[in-house]
Amino acid sequence: MENFAFYNPVKILFGKGQIANIGAEIPSDAKILITYGGGSIKSNGVYEQVKAALAGRNFLEFGGIEANPHLETLLKAVDLIRAEGIDFLLAVGGGSVVDGTKFIAAAVPFDGDPWDICAKQAPVKAAIPFGAVLTLPATGSEMNTASVVTKWETQEKLFFASPLVFPKFSVLDPETTYSLPIRQVSNGIVDAYVHVMEQYLTYPANAPLQDRMAESILKTLIEEGPKVLADLHNYEARANVMWCATMALNGLIGVGVPQDWATHMIGHELTALHGIDHAQTLAIVLPNTLTVRRDRKRLKLLQYADRVWGLVDGTEDSRIDQAIAKTREFFESVGVPTHLSDYGVGLDVIPKIIDRFEKRGFVALGENQDVTPKVVEKILVLCA
Ligand SMILES: NC(=O)c1ccc[n+]([C@@H]2O[C@H](COP(=O)([O-])OP(=O)(O)OC[C@H]3O[C@@H](n4cnc5c(N)ncnc54)[C@H](O)[C@@H]3O)[C@@H](O)[C@H]2O)c1
């Protein structure tokens, strides 16, 4: 196992009715800005619960944060916060609202062009404190330091991470997810699954505990995901998927082990260029990342085949083939298509992505830093 430091201070309030308890988590004299997205919180009762929990408190609202939050919108919130002297943010929504709020929190005290936080990885030295009420289990953003922001003007989707943007608390009430469109439920299952794979499906690092935690999350998603889709008001299944998504990317399973993330980096370009949902891009790319990099990932692919899919018969190569096929089938079975053609995108996207990577000076991705632009090309050709 590699050395590591693990720190995660996010307080989780899990379960039905927990929104009522947020008042106690926010300083009583805070001037609060509630941030949210397209307005689903106003039709599913979440907004009313938040307002009731903050009764008598000093708060303003900022709505309209898009899926794949746009820099241009977030900067409007930054102006509002500076003008109004806001000192606490409350993100109410999915990963995009939470990510966007993290960016806003870091941008308000930032000296210079806030886009540099993502584009130049400029250090974040301060951030406004914030909490989250999560309405879409998928990203893990509610319990991690990462944020992904899209600059609409240039169609760039870039990330930053800082311990200063850990939420102070996050509410995970599975009932808030009942109103999700099925596509987003499916996306959430796949997103959480691929987050685990990015941290697990690399090479052995003598970290059996992390491996077994990762395998447990994968198996739980395989069992519970379809239950949610079969009965959209199955509270227990919703709760299990929600907790899986948080545990998939709160840092715990990734400590002391190599991590990949090539699938995510390629996927971000597909979203930026073609607007394909984040999880859909992962479903397209991951099976092919595993295929192209099967030699470097061989030992973990065999472990994954055995422990997650129960594949123990046949040659090593056939078990690996089957494990990759099972992964693809699982994504398809929960309703997320796995080919670029399913989204009307052709292979002409490949040179654009390679060109972007090269212009950004990226040399190689992946746990061995050997996913060069040439390897990315091989992966994308298989995505057709
Ligand atoms: N910070 C991280 O660690 C991390 C990890 C993975 C992905 N991301 C990023 O997160 C973003 C995706 O977030 P997401 O998958 O949570 O989706 P999202 O937040 O973009 O939401 C998707 C859609 O669902 C709607 N929605 C959300 N909750 C709802 C509810 N309860 N009822 C009805 N509609 C609802 C939203 O309004 C939106 O239209 C992407 O930009 C992705 O790159 C971040």
Would you kindly provide a written description of the structure presented here, covering whatever features stand out?
- This protein has 14 helices and eight strands.
- The strands form two sheets. It has a six-stranded parallel beta sheet, covered by helices on one side.
- The mean pLDDT is 97.
- With 384 residues, the chain is of the alpha/beta class.
- The structure holds nicotinamide-adenine-dinucleotide.
- The site of nicotinamide-adenine-dinucleotide has 31 residues, from α4, β6 and α6.
List keywords for this structure.
two-stranded antiparallel sheet; 8 strands; 384 residues; binds nicotinamide-adenine-dinucleotide; alpha/beta; 6-stranded parallel beta sheet
How is the topology of this model organized?
Elements: E1 11-14, E2 31-36, H1 40-43, H2 46-53, E3 58-62, H3 71-84, E4 88-93, H4 95-107, H5 116-119, E5 130-134, E6 146-151, E7 156-161, E8 169-172, H6 182-200, H7 208-230, H8 235-248, H9 262-274, H10 278-292, H11 298-307, H12 316-333, H13 349-359, H14 373-382
Parallel strand pairs: 1-8, 2-3, 2-4, 4-5, 5-8
Antiparallel strand pairs: 6-7
Helix pairs in contact: 3-4, 6-7, 6-8, 6-10, 7-8, 9-10, 10-12, 10-14, 11-12, 13-14
Bound molecules: nicotinamide-adenine-dinucleotide.
